[in-house]
Amino acid sequence: MNATTLIAIVGAGAWVPQVFSWIKSCLSKPKLRFVPQEITQIGYTVFWGPIFSQNFAISVWRKDALVEKITATVIHKGGARHNFYWKYLSEKGAEIRGVSGEIAEFSKNQPAIALKVSILGLSEKTIVFQDLEYVRNLVMLLARQGEKENYLEKASVPNYQQEVIKSKEFLDIQDFVKTDFYWQQGKYDVYLYVHETSLKKPHVEHFRFELSKSDVEQLEKNIKEIQEYFKDVVLYKGKKPEEWPRHFWNWVTPGFYRAEEGKLSKGK
């Protein structure tokens, strides 16, 4: 063995600890998988706007995972793209059977701040996703309308509430609720981005759902309901809650499935 060969061997050996370190680092990173329930819940409500919630069984192996954020990009087949952000987490709680046989189910809701997933078992969570851009725009319009309302009230304008609902600021909200409704008939791709603390890039999974014509028609009914709600907020200001008109939101539950597995369920 000459000196050149010896130097080469020693040099190669110096890389061995680094190689083992890379392998250890790779193997120690958590591996996540989100298994969805076969339906999702799609809505359009007063303060949430476009919204969807999905139940997942979440598994992880190699090591526990700490999820700091989950986002979803929802893309219609026509190209319209919208970004959603997790807002709430919900998990199924206890079931209590009444004396007459009925079953009451309780669930625990919490703001989506972080999620710990253990290698010891599945974590079942319902994740509620919200379009934050929609909410920001709505809050801005509500703030302008609030300023107008306060001005008219402090100026002691007769029947100021009627003047509020005739104002440009209020009509802008009414128009926004209608024009920014974007659920459409057709297929949607959902790209789920899971931001885990030890991963440099988000974990990505690809799902799909499809809205029928009747689904969209049901959701469109919420536009009028939301517009009436905002009107009632002005007209019934100061009155007892029991005097307020009741408002209800329509929801639809299309099938939700992993993209590469094909459509599993049409939903209801």
Question: Can you walk through the features of this model?
Answer:
The chain is an alpha+beta fold and 268 residues long. Helix content is 34%, strand content 36%. It has five helices and eleven strands, in the order αββββββββαααββαβ. Strands 1, 2, 3, 4, 5, 6, 7, 8, 9, 10 and 11 form an eleven-stranded antiparallel β-sheet that branches. The longest helix has 25 residues, at 3-27. The radius of gyration is 26 Å and the shape is elongated. The chain starts with a helix and ends in a 10-residue tail after the last strand.
Give me the count of strands.
Answer: 11
Q: Could you name the ranges where pLDDT drops below 50 across 5 or more consecutive residues?
A: 19-26, 93-106, 263-268
Kindly provide the radius of gyration, computed on alpha-carbon positions and rounded to a whole number of angstroms: 26 Å
Helix content: 25-40%
Total domain modules: 1
Work out the strand percent: 35-45%
Q: How widely separated are the two ends?
A: 76 Å
Which structural class best describes the helix and strand composition? alpha+beta
Number of helices: 5
**What gross morphology would you assign?**
elongated
Report the biggest beta sheet as strand number plus sense, adding barrel if it closes: 11 strands, antiparallel
The helix-strand sequence is HEEEEEEEEHHHEEHE
List the helices and strands and how they pair.
Blueprint: H1 3-27, E1 31-36, E2 41-45, E3 49-61, E4 65-76, E5 81-97, E6 103-111, E7 115-117, E8 123-130, H2 132-154, H3 160-166, H4 168-179, E9 186-196, E10 203-211, H5 213-235, E11 256-258
Antiparallel strand pairs: 1-3, 2-3, 3-8, 4-5, 4-7, 4-9, 5-6, 5-8, 9-10, 10-11
Helix pairs in contact: 2-3, 2-4, 4-5
